[in-house]
Specification:
- By secondary structure, this protein is of the alpha/beta class.
- The protein contains nine helices and seven strands, in the order ββααααβαβαβαβαβα.
- Helix 6 links the parallel strand 4 and strand 5.
- Helix 1 packs across helix 2.
- It is globular and about 55 Å long.
């Protein structure tokens, strides 16, 4: 089967994921890397849809002893001051102009996806997508890929997937998709051309 559909991750593909930088803004007297290490397990639970954002802010405050307001600011920065990657948006626009069905597959939380949909134009060309909070699976767990296929009646062999994490790309390949590690928009465009896209866009 020929590849007809393009599936993208969101973080570090369309939006830069910079928790260290955001934590430095919110807690300038703290080292961001060990703080994020302490937060990461609970943030994964948030991505799985097991907690609300308000609940995780309270949890971070309780576990670290740092001000709750700082963690609330961190969550706001993640949503509202995300840095868009314009070259990726340009590639997406070429695909959309050519009528290519576009999907997203993201480890992400309810509040962030809702904010992105309401405020960021790069969400508009997607005909559908799956976020981890909806099904409780994180990449590269098989369930998140199968949810995408079932929800949108996609044959894995008809899809190419781009993600900045190699393990997630391996998971997509095991699920039956063609997949590439996303490094930058130029490399993505070259990979898309090998799959038969963009030449006519």
């Amino acid at each position: 089967m020929s590849i007809q559909n393009v599936v993208f991750d969101i973080g570090n593909v369309f939006v830069r994921w910079t928790p260290f930088e955001n934590l430095k803004v919110c807690f300038p007297d703290q080292e961001p890397q060990p703080l994020w290490t302490q937060m990461r397990s609970a943030w994964r639970d948030l991505n799985r849809g097991l907690m609300s954002m308000d609940a995780i802010i309270d949890l971070f405050h309780k576990e670290t002893g740092l001000p709750r307001e700082g963690f609330a600011q961190f969550c706001t920065l993640v949503m509202e001051q995300a840095t868009i990657i314009p070259d990726s948006v340009a590639v997406q626009a070429q695909l959309a102009k050519a009528g290519v069905p576009l999907y997203f597959l993201s480890d992400n939380i309810r509040e962030i996806i809702a904010y992105y949909r309401a405020h960021y134009d790069f969400m508009r060309p997607f005909v559908g997508g799956v976020a981890s909070y909806e099904n409780g699976f994180l990449k590269p767990e098989p369930g998140i890929y199968s949810d995408l296929f079932k929800r949108f009646d996609l044959d894995p062999a008809s899809c190419v997937f781009f993600d900045d994490v190699a393990a997630n790309v391996d998971g997509a390949r095991q699920a039956g998709m063609t997949a590439f590690v996303f490094t930058d928009a130029a490399a993505c465009a070259r990979d898309l051309k090998t799959c038969g896209f963009l030449d006519a866009a």
